[in-house]
Each structure stands twice: as C-alpha cells, then as structure tokens.
Amino acid sequence: AQLDVACDLGYLTKEELVDYAKEHMIDLVPNQNGFGHMSDWLMIDDFKELREVDGLFKMWGSYKPSSTLDATNPKSEEFVASLYDELLPYFKSKYFNMNFDEPYELGYGKSKEKCDATSKEDVYIEYLNPLFLYDYHSDLNWFGVICLTLLYNLLCPLVTIVYWFCKLCTVGRR
After folding, report:
1. pLDDT value at residue 128
2. Average pLDDT for 65-87
3. Residues 59-87, mean pLDDT to the nearest whole number
C-alpha cells in the first residue's frame, strides 16, 4: 500500500494521527499533495516514470530533486487517486486539502510541449479536474496554495481556496 511506503520514510502512521486527533478532540483535516511536493515519492523507483523532470531541477540558484508529477501521464492521476482512496477512509472531517500547489517544474519537462501549445494554466486545470471531480466522500474539497487568479475565478463556487502571499509561487517559476 502507498501509505505503508510513507511510513517507511519516517512519517507517522495513519493510525497514530487518527488516534491522537480523537484523543485531543481535533478535527483532523486530511492533506495529501497531488502535484508538487512529491519528491519523496518520485525518488522511489516505482514512481520515477511519474516525474515531470528526470533528475535535478534548477530552482532559486540550486539544483533540487524532481518534485512535480507529470501532468501529461495518466498514471500520475491514477497514483494520486490511489493515495486519496487509501488516506480518506481514516478521516471524519468534512474538509479535505487536495494540495495542488507549487508544481514548479510544470512546463519544463515532459509537459513542455503541451504547455507551449496551450498554457501552463490549461495543463494545470486539465490535470486537476478529474481529481477534483473524483468522489472523495467529503462534503467540501479544498486546495492548498493556488497563486493563479484564473483558477480562483473558475473554482470559487466549488472550493475554499487556501491562499497566502508568496511572490515566488507562480506555477513553473525558476
């Protein structure tokens, strides 16, 4: 199971989190990255094909390991849906942070041709839509940082946007 791999990386188990929240009367809101911040997963051999950029990506003057899923690979969507399927049954919260923020490599690797033909925003939305419309058994879905006004205007009737000022959080910025 995907979450067992996460535990092997030193993260708390799902049972530990749920038990702690219940004991302390906390509404534990599930959060799972679904686009950026995926470097721990993408270092695992079984998931290397899902990388937007193979190897290192230059960002802010240094090289970082690949952290963005390939939005043009249907297996990326399948992988994220499998993470959600495994994670969400453990939570009672009506909220769910899908967390599609900071896909910095978008448009610089495998999705470059498609982003050049349309736009990074279009590729982002095309990747996000099937995952957003997936049945998560939750009354309300919401997203992590989205620093694109376009997305806010498209999604605001459906989601709560979690936004904070970040002058470097434009999708794909180096």
Report:
1. 83
2. 93
3. 92
pTM score: 0.75
Dihedral, 13, 99, 43, 109 alpha carbons, nearest 10: 170
Instruction: Decide: residue 171, CB within 10 A, 0-12 exposed, 13-18 middle, 19+ buried.
Output: buried
DSSP string for the chain: -HHHHHHHTTPPPHHHHHHHHHHTT-----B--SSSS-HHHHTSGGGGGGBSSSSEEEETTEEEE--SB-TT-HHHHHHHHHHHHHHGGG---S--B------TTTTSSTTHHHHHHS-HHHHHHHHHHHHHHS--S-S--EES----HHHHHHHTTT-EE-----TT-STT--
Question: What's the pLDDT tens digit per position in 109-160?
Answer: 999 999 999 998 889 888 887 877 666 554 444 444 444 444 555 555 555 6
The string of pLDDT tens digits covering residues 125-136 is 888 878 776 665
For tokens 């839509």, what's the residue? 129
Is 153 within 8 Å of 85 (Cβ atoms)? Answer: no
